[in-house]
Amino acid sequence: MTNRQKLTTVSLFSGAGGLDAGLDAVGEFDLLACVEVDPSFCDTLSHNRDRGLFGSDRTEVICADLSKLDPFELMDRLGLAPGQLDVLVGGPPCQSFSTAGRRGTVEDPRGLLLWDFLRFVDALKPRYFLMENVRGLISAALRHRPIAERPERGGPPLAADEVPGSVMDSWISDLLKIDSAAYRADLFEVNSVNYGAPQLRERVLIFGNRRSQVLDFPAPTHGTETQPYASLAEALDGFVEDVPVLMDFSPRKKGFLSQVPPGGNWRMLPDEVARESMGKAYFAKGGRSGWWRRLSWDLPCPTITTLPNHSSTSMCHPDEVRVLSVGECARIQEFPDGWEFVGSPQQQMKQVGNAVPTRLGSIAGRVIADAARGKDGGAESTTPAFRRKYLKSHVRTRQWFKAGKALVWDGAGGSAEYSAKRASQETLF
């Protein structure tokens, strides 16, 4: 298949190339350009393009702020007229909508980049688009009301722009105004682990098209007795690196983690040690499973983050008292073998932690390619212009605590019990 037969594609908010590498693996996309604002990310994209790991020698890497870039200047640079591009893809920065941490939603400038993606859809008028983001986008409000000030805590009723889901409602409303409702869209809530990736990672994928087609993302394929989830051991089997790049734990953190068995977390520590090491977080009601966490070979990896060495998002190696390396995390994200990251350890880990699992990119790419090769139309008159579908995105692979006892995965499909007393009496590593 020549480049002329492939689907011309432009990638926005390209990051370190996870989505683009996934699309490239499908073999049906001609990537004209990647647009990314962070110079270290751009260096990584250029480096791996030049090494032949994705795209082609004519794939441009454009380092630019998409909130300021004129889409018509981009089209002139790429020799495109409105309506000529087959596919526009991208993942606007998602921190504003993540449920991990303080939400800023569209009050945070990063939230407004959702509408910059829409601005490029409006200008380029691609036949298809794919926008990915965190699942928290679904429940995000245009204006965030702190929990302590909400109606259930005695505050006034929520305004329309404070209602959960108002971000997505507003974005879809604006999408449907483009060219007199030329686009229809299908939104899917997915988890990469359900499709064979060795990582729990929830994402939202929004497919849009100008052909009135109803696009369907495949049903989950993994997580059953006959097709279990991929494990960390499978992901890192045979992986070796000469000089690992680490954002490692401090000696103090390693002191706590050395007391935690593989597959465990803070609940394996003696109570007085857990209290001292966690501070106020010890008394929180949720969001503590990542504290002093050591990974299990027998389970999928938790979501790769940009801060694997943080106390509350710990990504400690199962056998060694150290953080997972950049290379190991990239392998879990399923970047192509040989993919290299440019920049400081912190910059490299940011690139890996923000990436889309390449497997999701490949599956999404196949959905678009199959639709593009099919006939026009395909949607029945009763199909709404926007559809949302939940595909088992919330996945739990284990239980951390039960009946007053901490649990740790035993490697045989169950959990072994560890009391705080037992953990305090054992010297591990």
Keywords:
three-stranded antiparallel β-sheet; alpha/beta; eight-stranded mixed β-sheet; disordered C terminus; globular
Main sheet record? 8 strands, mixed
SSE pattern, N- to C-terminal: EHEHEHEHEHEEHHHHHHEEEEH
Q: How much strand? A: 5-15%
* Helix proportion range: 25-40%
Structural class: alpha/beta
User: What's the number of structural domains?
Assistant: 2
CATH architecture call of the largest domain: 3-Layer(aba) Sandwich
What is the assigned CATH homologous superfamily of the largest domain? Answer: Vaccinia Virus protein VP39
Q: How would you write the strand order of the largest sheet?
A: 3-2-1-4-5-7-6-8
**What is the mean pLDDT?**
89
3D shape: globular
Q: What's the Cα radius of gyration?
A: 23 Å
In total, the number of strands is 11
Distance between the termini: 55 Å
Low-confidence stretches: 98-105, 419-429
Which fold name fills CATH's third level, the topology of the largest domain? Rossmann fold
Tell me the number of helical segments per DSSP (H or I, 4 or more residues long): 12
- For the record, the CATH class of the largest domain is Alpha Beta
Helices and strands in order:
Layout: E1 7-12, H1 18-26, E2 29-36, H2 39-50, E3 60-63, H3 71-78, E4 87-90, H4 113-124, E5 128-133, H5 166-175, E6 184-191, E7 202-209, H6 232-236, H7 251-257, H8 271-278, H9 326-332, H10 345-353, H11 358-373, E8 386-390, E9 401-402, E10 405-409, E11 415-418, H12 420-425
Parallel strand pairs: 1-2, 1-4, 2-3, 4-5, 6-8
Antiparallel strand pairs: 5-7, 6-7, 9-10, 10-11
Helix pairs in contact: 1-11
